[in-house]
């Protein structure tokens, strides 16, 4: 029996998603869950637009030579799903998006005028996780990364790291996370690239972190096989730590793929590559979010924001007109005109995680008002226009969004 605060229980109660044995480590998103997924995706997409990212899409299957060149065939192969094509050519489902973005940059052939070049993708990836390690949305075989890669000149790298770090606290606060810590992960035992390359990468990234005013907890040996990283750790209401955002400095893959740009004098130069994500995995972040809020998501994130409950005969039309006004104003609302008691409708709305219930009955019709009931039980009567204005304001994303 799952704990009621477990995200899998909350996912069932809120009708968001389910998992089943026929698709181990993969998610069936229900309409309400897919809407939540899209709301988070759109918040990330807005941040990408603000920061100058161009959104791209890359293939799911790539042939073995690309994975050999990136180093994944040697350093990550046990986590990859492999296939053999006709003729014996090996391909693999992508576990990461980086090599695909590098292919795009090679085709673009950028000059110094194009840098920094920022590419972003909601990349669906697959990793061959052992069945015993699968755990709800926390550990999956198929998930989506809010992935981004920045290709820049050395003199631009520091500002790109600072820019990313500055944006994160406000971004996480929109989801209800105020407590953010930072860790610095250095070279692992199994890695690509020389010690000299790693010395440079670690020194540059640490200096950028200091300039951003970050106080990093050191994590020796926890970096990616191609570069050191800054990891942003969120603390949830039960006090648990969750590593979500990350930015990694990579001097290895640009060299392995012979990436270059043309500088102002016409000479070929090697760009630096930054790997960045704000959430890491959208699915995992949803699990963290559900448990952090115990299913009571902020109004802007709730798949359903307002239920307008009609009470008694003749009030259904009144309730539907108010719900229609809310929808016109951009709220996700519907009228509950079932022949059920008010207490039943309140319980059902609460179980569905709806932050606002509006009561519309004969008494409210007579006075041309509605009764607003918050999720915590606070309630009051307001005239139509006042109620509409308050609900629209409460359901709208914060100004930073």
UniProtKB/TrEMBL annotation:
Signal peptide: none
Keyword Ligase: yes
Keywords annotated in UniProt: Aminoacyl-tRNA synthetase, ATP-binding, Cytoplasm, Ligase, Metal-binding, Nucleotide-binding, Protein biosynthesis, Zinc
Residue ranges occupied by any Aminoacyl-transfer RNA synthetases class-II family profile domain in the UniProt entry: 6-298
CDD domains: ThrRS_anticodon, ThrRS_core
Catalyzed chemical reaction(s): tRNA(Thr) + L-threonine + ATP = L-threonyl-tRNA(Thr) + AMP + diphosphate + H(+)
Record GO terms (molecular function): ATP binding; metal ion binding; threonine-tRNA ligase activity
PROSITE patterns per record: AA_TRNA_LIGASE_II
PANTHER family in UniProt: THREONINE--TRNA LIGASE, CHLOROPLASTIC_MITOCHONDRIAL 2 (PTHR11451:SF44), THREONINE-TRNA LIGASE (PTHR11451)
Family recorded in the similarity comment: Belongs to the class-II aminoacyl-tRNA synthetase family.
Protein name: Threonine--tRNA ligase
Protein species of origin: Cystobacter ferrugineus
